[in-house]
Amino acid sequence: MNIIPAPTVAVTGVTVVQPAVVQPALVQPALVQPSVVAVQPMVVMSPMVTAIPDYLGYSIFTMLCCCLPLGIAATIYSCSTRDANMAGQREMAMSSSRVAFILNNVALGIGLTFFTLGIILNFTVIQRHL
Fold it and tell me: In a 3-state reduction of DSSP, which class is residue 88?
């Protein structure tokens, strides 16, 4: 901001100093920001009060001990159930839980069948060779 010095006027030996005048052309306009504030609504996702069972332990057991491919699929559906529970999506959680439970039961049935057939074949082969 430039201030021009005031001219002095001499009147009978007395010096009168006039106040400085600011030229309007040199004043920069103030930047005015709009005062509107937009408030976004806050969405809070909370877990359901009664969570749908995810059968994750059962899925890991069937994956490691019974039938690996069906166990992997059941584990994926179990994790999907857990995610849906945390997001509060009850219908999706129920659907994923049902699929995980069915896959776990089928994998357990296949595992027990192969285990039983293995024992039967083992004893029949051993009895034949003795």
Answer: coil
